[in-house]
């Protein structure tokens, strides 16, 4: 300020107190740095420009997404040079309009990006507030409101992940920094001395991440001195998901080299393919090797808000840390990035703290745990959580859930529209819980098997209805069983959770008999002990590995079939009965079947699956797990082999060794795993070894089809190519002779199993049901048995008198004997 201006302000001031001046180094210190009136006027004008150009026009579908100019032309239009003399407010407002005009409007309805888009008014208003107040989140005393809102938002986000017991976290400048935080925390947990002594105090550390991961992982490794060569890229499957078995192999390889694994980075929503890594399976590997598991859910974390789609992140509650960017799927204004930790031992603060005494004093007049600045590598930190907090308060969790559901629904719609356009093709089909029924229909049509396109389309819609109702992780068409009155369409889904085992009819009857009050049952109780019954296999294992739903026609309600018992399988093997199409119909047979048609249908499905579910050799591979051999079938000890390269159709038709059974064999006991029923009987120790039964053993999982036994002098399978004109594109088709109606088709790296038939096993040219045992004789008759006529009434009276006389004489004799003893 010049001296003339200072004198003018002093002379024109009438209030001596307000107009007292403080001049230092020719600078007036007690005058306002800016003219308040002109400042407010400019803000009003600039906000009007923002509302008109950046809000109204930028969201108008009739406007352009971007007024594109090449760099050289745009630099000239914007006049980017900075000069000594400032420009007028009107010129600056013109600059604002130009900046908006030539920018990409990410809020425009025609702007499409897989990571962010759309106008969000509440977080925009929150941005205006925080920019106007200019707070910095390092201590509570300088940003009390925003410190508390950040704490509330982090607590709610941890709850959405499933960390009910608590945890820690912080908002920071982007998902890349969140991933870097995760690596630093994992390293500090492994080698806490690195913080003070540097990398020289640590062994050769290595971390593992998917080959589809975000590049920030390798950048963080370089920045932190770990080295990009020490980042193992774990192979992904054809959908971009990390392969857990490959992770296991790479960890073992690293350990064999003397390297020290300390962390695994999984991704929930990869940048290119949008893949969600199998978190549960990866968590199993990490727990086995005691590794920190981080999930980069910067994009996919928003799915946690949706009950419909949160299963995409199944198992996320088991991880150690999560990166989540609400500015992506939840549409918060950029940027809004959270880093969340399950640890509750202040690991986040211990890893980053510098204990700056001029900021983080421990003797303040409030709870210093709200001074969160020492958890961050930043000092000045923007209150980004406030944008999410204000938006969440305005919309609520339900509206945010609808926002996520709408985004994913639009993605599916867009994929369907792309399929219809000529010149476009999808790189990958949408991954849903429902298997590709259209592809199954194509395979069956090429093989000359099965159902019409129209019926398959109806079944597809019915299966979609089932998926929406039951929300299984996977669902596939198992097949169609023909009945005398109506048919059964059968869908197969995995067990999502343990369910209570249903009691069979026999078990219910026995339990009811035990509960009968003895006083109300005067009849004598039988001392007969029933032979032990083989127990059901647990849900999700053996013959009960999957859950099956049936309906008679597409569009009708789906009915869940009960789990199957060994007794039902054992009896189903001895009878040959057509299905009626009514689940509640009685099964009249010998031996008596323990249940109705629903139970019989479930038993036949288990038998058919065990004998006909086959896949190309090496499509699945065994998982090395430490387990008891007796409980092998209780484990899902095989998985898809990511390195499977496919087998030609001609080779699969020629050699049955190229096919394997991937369903567990059912033993004669009716279970996939044998149980020793004699162990529960009360027998003498001497006879235990002599009466020990021989364990039942069946073929192991992934046994080649070529080992199947011949039936009736016929091979168990027949095979052919779907086309001899174009064998290169033909399918390999197999049909079961043992179970007519069971088919398997394969081409390249894909295969399909389906059953369409009566649900009966081939038993030869003629079938005769087993005869019941001969009736037992009421009483054995032999030479020692005599037969006499019943006495007359007079004879009975005479015999009765004789008996009375004998009894009286015996009484007199006994009294005399007693008197003689007394005399002695």
Automatic annotation (TrEMBL):
Chain positions with N6-(pyridoxal phosphate)lysine modification: 328
Biased composition (Acidic residues): 495-520, 785-797, 812-824
UniProt xrefs under PROSITE patterns: DDC_GAD_HDC_YDC (PS00392)
Cofactor: pyridoxal 5'-phosphate
One MF annotation (Gene Ontology) recorded for this entry: carboxy-lyase activity
UniProt KW keywords: Cell projection, Cilium, Cytoplasm, Cytoskeleton, Decarboxylase, Lyase, Pyridoxal phosphate
Entry superkingdom: Eukaryota
Name of the molecule in the record: Radial spoke head component 4A
Gene name tied to this protein: GADL1
């Amino acid at each position: 300020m010049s001296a003339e201006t200072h004198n003018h302000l002093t002379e024109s001031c009438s209030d001596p107190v307000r107009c007292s001046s403080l001049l230092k180094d020719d600078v007036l210190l007690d005058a306002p740095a800016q003219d308040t009136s002109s400042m407010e006027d400019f803000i009003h004008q600039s906000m009007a420009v923002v509302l008109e150009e950046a809000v109204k026009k930028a969201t108008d579908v009739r406007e352009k997404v971007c007024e594109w100019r090449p760099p050289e032309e745009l630099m000239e239009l914007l006049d980017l040079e900075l000069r000594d003399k400032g420009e007028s407010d009107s010129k600056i407002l013109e600059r604002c309009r130009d900046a908006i005009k030539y920018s990409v409007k990410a809020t425009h309805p025609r702007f499409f990006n897989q990571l962010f888009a759309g106008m969000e008014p509440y977080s925009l208003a929150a941005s205006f507030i925080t920019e106007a107040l200019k707070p910095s989140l390092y201590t509570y005393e300088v940003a009390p409101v925003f410190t508390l809102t950040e704490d509330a938002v982090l607590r709610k986000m941890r709850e959405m992940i499933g960390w009910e017991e608590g945890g820690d976290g912080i908002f920071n400048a982007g998902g890349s920094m969140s991933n870097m935080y995760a690596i630093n925390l994992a390293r500090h947990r492994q080698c806490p001395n690195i913080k003070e002594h540097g990398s020289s105090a640590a062994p050769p550390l290595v971390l593992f991440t998917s080959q589809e991961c975000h590049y920030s992982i390798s950048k963080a490794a370089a920045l932190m001195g770990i080295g990009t060569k020490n980042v193992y890229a774990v192979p992904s499957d054809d959908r971009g998901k990390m392969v857990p078995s490959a992770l296991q192999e790479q960890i073992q390889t690293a350990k064999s080299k003397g390297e020290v694994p300390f962390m695994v980075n999984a991704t929930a929503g990869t940048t290119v393919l949008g893949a969600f890594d199998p978190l549960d399976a990866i968590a199993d590997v990490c727990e086995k090797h005691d590794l920190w598991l981080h999930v980069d859910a910067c994009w996919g974390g928003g799915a946690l808000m949706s009950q419909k789609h949160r299963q995409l992140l199944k198992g996320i509650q088991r991880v150690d840390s999560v990166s989540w960017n609400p500015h992506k799927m939840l549409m918060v204004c950029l940027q809004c990035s959270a880093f969340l930790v399950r640890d509750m031992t202040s690991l986040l603060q211990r890893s980053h703290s510098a204990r700056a005494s001029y900021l983080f004093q421990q003797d303040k007049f409030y709870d210093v745990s709200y001074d969160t600045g020492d958890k961050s590598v930043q000092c000045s930190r923007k209150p980004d959580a406030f944008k999410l907090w204000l938006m969440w308060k305005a919309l609520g969790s339900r509206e945010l859930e609808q926002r996520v559901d709408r985004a994913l629904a639009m993605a599916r719609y867009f994929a369907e529209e792309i399929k219809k356009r000529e010149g476009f093709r999808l790189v990958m089909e949408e991954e849903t819980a429902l298997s590709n029924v259209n592809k199954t229909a194509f395979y069956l049509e090429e093989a000359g098997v099965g159902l019409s396109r129209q019926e398959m389309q109806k079944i597809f819609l019915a299966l979609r209805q089932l998926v929406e109702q039951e929300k299984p992780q996977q669902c596939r068409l198992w097949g169609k069983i023909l009945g005398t009155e109506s048919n059964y369409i059968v869908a197969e889904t995995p067990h999502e959770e343990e369910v209570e085992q249903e009691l069979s009819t026999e078990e219910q009857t026995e339990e009811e008999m035990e509960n009968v009050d003895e006083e109300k049952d005067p009849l004598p109780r039988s001392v007969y002990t029933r032979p032990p019954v083989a127990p059901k296999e647990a849900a999700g294992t053996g013959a009960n590995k999957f859950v099956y739903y049936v309906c008679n026609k597409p569009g009708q309600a789906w009915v869940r079939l009960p789990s199957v018992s060994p007794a039902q399988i054992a009896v189903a093997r001895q009878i040959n009965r057509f299905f009626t199409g009514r689940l509640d119909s009685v099964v009249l047979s010998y031996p008596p079947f323990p249940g109705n048609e629903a139970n019989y249908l479930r038993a036949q499905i288990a038998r058919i699956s065990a004998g006909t579910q086959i896949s190309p050799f090496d499509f699945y591979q065994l998982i090395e797990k430490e387990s008891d051999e007796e409980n092998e079938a209780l484990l899902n000890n095989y998985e898809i082999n990511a390195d499977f390269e496919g087998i030609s159709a001609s080779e699969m038709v020629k050699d049955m060794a190229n096919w394997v059974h991937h369903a567990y064999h059912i033993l004669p006991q009716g279970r996939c795993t044998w149980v020793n029923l004699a162990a529960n009987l009360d027998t003498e120790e001497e006879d235990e070894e002599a009466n020990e039964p021989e364990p039942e053993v069946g073929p192991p999982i992934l046994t080649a089809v070529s080992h199947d036994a011949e039936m009736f002098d016929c091979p168990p399978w027949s095979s052919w190519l779907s086309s001899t004109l174009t064998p290169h594109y033909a399918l390999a088709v197999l049909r079961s002779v043992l179970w007519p109606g069971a088919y398997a088709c394969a081409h390249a790296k894909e295969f399909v199993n389906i059953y369409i038939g009566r649900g009966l096993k081939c038993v030869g040219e003629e079938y005769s049901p087993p005869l019941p045992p001969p009736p037992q004789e009421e009483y054995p008759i032999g030479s020692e048995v005599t037969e006499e006529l019943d006495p007359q009434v007079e004879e009975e009276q005479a015999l009765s008198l004789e008996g009375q006389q004998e009894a009286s004489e015996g009484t007199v004799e006994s009294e005399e004997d007693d008197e003689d003893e007394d005399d002695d």
